[in-house]
Specification:
Elements (H helix, E strand, L loop, with lengths): L1 H13 L1 E12 L2 E12 L3 E5 L6 H9 L6 E6 L2 E2 L3 H6 L4 E4 L13 H11 L4 H15 L14 H13 L5 E5 L7 H17 L4 E6 L2 H4 L4 E6 L2 E6 L1 H8 L4 H8 L2 H4 L19 E10 L2 E11 L4 E5 L6 H8 L7 E6 L2 E2 L6 H5 L1 E4 L11 H11 L4 H14 L15 H13 L5 E5 L7 H18 L2 E6 L2 H4 L4 E6 L2 E6 L1 H7 L5 H13 L2 E7 L6 E8 L3 E3 L22 H7 L5 E4 L2 E4 L10
Parallel strand pairs: 3-8, 3-9, 6-7, 7-8, 13-18, 13-19, 16-17, 17-18
Antiparallel strand pairs: 1-2, 1-4, 4-5, 9-10, 11-12, 11-14, 14-15, 19-20, 21-22, 22-23, 24-25
Helix pairs in contact: 4-5, 5-6, 9-10, 14-15, 19-20
Length: 604
């Protein structure tokens, strides 16, 4: 009987990658997890969904063994993580990639040195380390950049290197905390394709991911939705949507929230804009900003009309914030010019020009030690609002943005969504004609995000305020009148969302953005034939959007990711097999590409 019970227990443990039972976790007075009980399935891609501050990172830290268990039981890989000996012993079986671009990297070490150091920590011999580093960097396309310092990699490449560092010891449990937040759509797609390839080789590996992107979560096998430190729903994406009676995960998440949180929520409706004409609100002409030899913004040009909602879409580090700072006079351009309402921006504008603009920074920039009301009163004085109307305007802001109940509370103790409403109230209380908002809804829950957008739409359509905002979210970009797609300091395309989708013949804005990114990176086209006498493949020419044809003599050494190949149709398998031993190579702009991936997994 005991053997039978043990067998059943072992069977159940094999089906669970990690579990929590009655787990509560606090940071001082802040309750991060509230009596959470959860079983995370093994051998699958599972996800935690929910906005910032709901407890996702705390939960992942606990099952990774990097946070001490305060109350309750936490198990991973069939062991109790309160047991110090087990926790130390299972380190080699768990890989944890914390939130933030490259947080587990050493920025001054090269790509190779980061991987080599982690391999040494896990006791790998030199030959084994070299083989693993070669395999991982070839799989991720990092092999051309082995000598580059991690701190000088792009956001997407940092995340790929972070993943390589996490996988160098073949973990059984891979924990990823928002690994693609702030990464461009193309890099995000490549990241998940890499995970899929690794899981195909190691199907027993369990993957647990926290994400802010609901479209990503749609691809996971199992989800746990979280709010206020509690798990509010579990199941497959289809099960969660069915339970909520919703067509997409974001709508399902909103429907599953407590009644008091979703009270008054409704679908966003955007009335058509009245075209006023006249002088544009914003003009950027060949705007450029260099920091030493680094070009952060590279000859950016666009126009924003009065009353328009204009979106800036791009990854972290692509130059969005730098551009916005130049347009507000907070940062002088190296080259080019910026115009506000037809007047040049020099950084030395008088108070009258500054009154016409409201700016909301990416991070919370108000005074945490002052109450909500005192912050509004202070900024009313700073913008020299008439004394006789200051009190009335402050009261108007408290009512308009739903801040009356928290008027005497310090912002640092308020939820992120309310803090963002306060920042918007401060930004518009001097009645500016233009609002510049830097990722105003990042980390905010879907209900608060939609409420924030209702305020923006009312300001644009009712008050005629021009709104220029940056965002990572495709559904937000679809709400803009026009958008600009930015990457590596350059504007790739601009227009209405439907125009950009149509231009790429894409099914969605994200697919269109990926298409523009592929154009920017360069797409290769192989012209080739099979010699019938020898059965060998011959390359006539390599064509690239970034440089015409490359004769065969120039093809020495490189890696072409599968997505960059336009046409390799019609190759016979025998020719492809011969081609494996003599990879066609191309060097371009410090990047090295090979055709191994292009010809498919059979050649690996």
């Amino acid at each position: 009987m005991d053997a039978l019970v043990q067998t059943e227990s072992d069977r159940k443990a094999a089906l669970v990658a990690a579990s929590l039972k009655g787990v509560t976790h606090r940071y001082g007075k802040t309750l991060a997890l509230d009596s959470v009980t959860l079983e995370i399935p093994a051998g699958r891609m599972t996800g935690l969904i929910g906005p910032d501050g709901v407890g996702k990172s705390t939960l992942l830290g606990l099952i990774a063994g990097v946070r001490r268990v305060q109350t309750g039981e936490v198990r991973a890989l069939d062991g109790d993580l309160k047991d110090e000996a087990f926790r130390q012993g299972c380190c080699a079986r768990i890989a944890y990639m914390p939130q933030g671009l490259g947080r587990n990297l050493y920025p001054t070490l090269s790509v190779f040195e980061n991987l080599d150091f982690i391999g040494r920590l896990f006791g790998q011999e030199g030959t084994e380390r070299k083989a693993r580093i070669d395999d991982l960097t070839r799989s991720t396309g990092l092999d051309p950049f082995l000598e580059r310092p991690a701190g000088k990699l792009s956001g997407g490449m940092k995340q790929k290197l972070s993943l390589c560092c996490s996988l160098i010891h073949d973990p059984d449990l891979l924990i990823l905390d928002e690994p693609t937040t702030g990464v461009d759509p193309l890099s995000r797609r490549q990241f998940w394709e890499l995970i899929d390839r690794i899981r195909a080789r190691r199907p027993q590996m369990s993957v647990v991911v926290a994400t802010a992107y609901m479209d990503e979560a749609e691809q996971y096998a199992w989800l746990a939705a979280m709010d206020d430190g509690r798990v509010i729903a579990t199941g497959s994406p289809a099960e969660i949507k069915s339970r909520a009676g919703a067509e997409d995960l974001e709508s399902a998440f909103i429907a599953l929230l407590p009644e008091e949180k979703r009270k008054g929520h409704k679908a966003i409706e955007i009335p058509p804009r009245k075209h006023e004409g006249g002088t544009p609100a914003i003009e950027a002409d060949a705007l450029t900003k260099r920091f030493g030899s680094f070009v952060a913004v590279d000859h950016v040009s666009f126009r924003i009309e009065k009353g328009e909602i204009f979106g800036f879409l791009g990854s972290n580090g692509c130059g969005k914030s730098t551009t916005m700072k130049m347009l507000t006079g907070l940062l002088p351009p190296t080259e080019g010019k910026a115009m506000l309402f037809g007047e040049p921006v020099s950084g030395e504008e008088d108070i009258e020009m500054r009154r016409r603009v409201g700016y909301m920074s990416q991070a919370f920039s108000l005074y945490g030690e002052l109450t909500v009301r005192r912050n509004l009163e202070l900024h009313a004085k700073l913008f020299d609002l008439p004394v006789a109307t200051r009190g009335k305007r402050v009261d108007e802001m408290l009512d308009r943005f739903g801040l009356r109940e928290v008027a005497d509370v310090q912002p640092e103790s308020l939820p992120l969504g309310i803090r963002q409403r306060l920042q918007l109230a401060v930004a518009i209380q001097h009645r500016p004609e233009m609002l510049i908002l830097d990722e105003p809804t990042s980390g905010v829950d879907p209900v608060a995000r939609d409420q924030f957008w209702e305020y923006l739409i009312a300001l644009s359509r009712n008050d005629g305020v021009t709104i220029f905002l940056s965002t990572h979210f495709m559904n937000e970009a679809m709400r803009c009148d026009r958008i600009s797609l930015m990457h590596s300091g350059k504007v790739l395309a601009a227009g209405t969302p439907p125009e950009l989708i149509e231009a790429r013949r894409a099914k969605s804005l994200e697919q269109a953005f990926i298409g523009f990114l592929e154009d920017a990176a360069g797409a290769l086209n192989f012209q080739c034939f099979v010699d019938q006498a020898t059965g060998r493949l011959s390359i006539i020419e390599l064509n690239a959007r970034f440089g015409g044809g490359f004769p065969l003599s120039d093809t020495a050494g490189a890696r072409v990711p599968r997505w960059m190949i336009e046409d390799l149709a019609g190759l016979e398998s025998s020719a492809a097999a011969d081609f494996q031993d003599g990879l066609i190579m191309l060097r371009y702009d410090d990047a090295v590409f090979t055709t191994r991936d292009a010809l498919g997994p059979d050649l690996d």
